[in-house]
């Protein structure tokens, strides 16, 4: 029977990873709007504000949430009510459930307790994610069918066909990773990526499985229904696809589910092919051994970042002085002061830490934990950005092109990848 | 704790199965079947057979049921189009008698067997065990099944395509 402390730890871990995924959602939506504006050379959203504070369009998220909460959740008369209500919940729940096996740091040992930094340390973690995301189709299918609308049904059908087609290359691309790292446990796979290849290249999945990485990333784009694979909601063809009849928070659940799926895919790409929480050239033992140095570097980085951002803000304030004549001119000073305070705080701790030469064991491990969580978060954010980048750079596929790519190109390539990996592994073993 | 979970999951599995045969709407039936399959997967997870649990969800709930629902949606049957199946009384009685006979026989044969608590091996249902047994002890049935599936796929393509 697990003790109370174990249960508390598991709950804390679950809260952490859900919090991580959910806080990324508004950030991603902001990323998407500002990123698309940047790519299309527009200004992007900058109107909504609280007393004039606009935070470069970030406040739009808050106004969106308020709008969606206030909005009436229409139930059109022709729909199948039960399924219409269940569908958005299904779509969002399964995605969040899949986060349970994502590891975000190495084992954390404190007080003689070995805590693995993932909610469920399953033996076949990747397969768990594949299984749970395959259930995610039901949300979309049900939404499309229960809406009793031709466009919605078309969107649901397209989405089902697309997702079951691209699940196959997705699963086959992972097989190569199984073979190389001899495990299906996500934490083991990440640990296997900590070594070096030929003495200088980190043994990341993308370097040992380049073809697998490409296939996986492409299939992940298709699984999240993102451009260039966003046929299920192709707005120029079938209005908005499966969620055309939804409004209010039920629509918001689909919208958030899309971004949660992006976070999940980014986390999987980072975990399987880009070293997960591994910092290149610095395995956990190295960080723990040189924890004092790492602490100093991290604090110095925080101090520099804070001061640099403050300087940037103050310079920007000076440049725009008198241009708007409203509250926008106070954003720079406020943000700059906050950032300056953070920078000063970091500098203070940095100066304090200069005298440190060795940290206690728990301290060293905490430094490693923080460093690894940051590395993981940076990788996930990078891949989230790639998702947005691609969406605003590429046109949509035609349906037959989509199917041809999936079945006739990607699946054979995935088989070739498995065969080549097997041959190389056997040759290397001799 | 374990017993409570077991009873919940077992109840859901049986209820899902019953609903599947009794509900009129084909889509509702399909979803009850999914409920049943997922509860069954939960029972496997309670035995610590992680791989079997995942396969149950991935293959049955995730792949096969998606295809079934896809088909139902493609046909897009209206409730009015679904006719009541004519109840053949003779057939019903015959089925009941046969089932009763089978149940009676099963009780006669297995009724005196005392249930024994069997210790499940710690690696029961893990990826390694399943993989090893599939490629060693059961390699012949495994290959035969894949051959049968291949034949089925080729047959379907042959039937569906007019020009090859």
Write up this protein:
The complex is a heterodimer of chains A (430) and B (164). With 430 residues, chain A is mostly helical. Chain A folds into two domains: 70-278 and 367-429, no CATH class; 291-359. Helix content of chain A is 70%, strand content 2%. In chain A, the strands form two sheets. A two-stranded antiparallel ribbon of chain A has the order 1-2. Chain A has a two-stranded antiparallel ribbon with strand order 3-4. In chain A, a hairpin with a 3-residue loop joins β3 (196-197) and β4. In chain B, α1 packs antiparallel against α2 and α2 (26-46) runs antiparallel to α3 (50-75). The longest helix of chain B has 26 residues, at 50-75. The model of chain B has no long low-confidence stretch (mean pLDDT 83). Chain A binds chain B through residues 1, 83, 122-124, 127-128, 130-132, 134-135, 137-138, 141, 144-145, 153, 156-157, 160-161, 163-164, 167, 184, and chain B through 1, 27, 34, 50-51, 54-55, 57-58, 61-63, 66-67, 69-70, 73-74, 76, 126-127.
Summarize the helices and strands and which ones pair or pack:
The complex is a heterodimer of chains A (430) and B (164).
Chain A (H helix, E strand, L loop, with lengths): L3 H36 L19 H12 L10 H18 L9 E3 L2 E3 L9 H22 L3 H32 L4 H7 L3 E2 L3 E2 L2 H4 L1 H14 L11 H4 L9 H26 L10 H6 L1 H30 L7 H26 L7 H31 L7 H31 L1
Antiparallel strand pairs in A: 1-2, 3-4
Helix pairs in contact in A: 1-10, 1-14, 2-10, 3-4, 3-10, 4-5, 5-8, 5-15, 8-10, 8-15, 10-14, 12-13, 12-14
Chain B lengths: L1 H21 L3 H21 L3 H26 L13 H22 L16 H9 L3 H22 L4
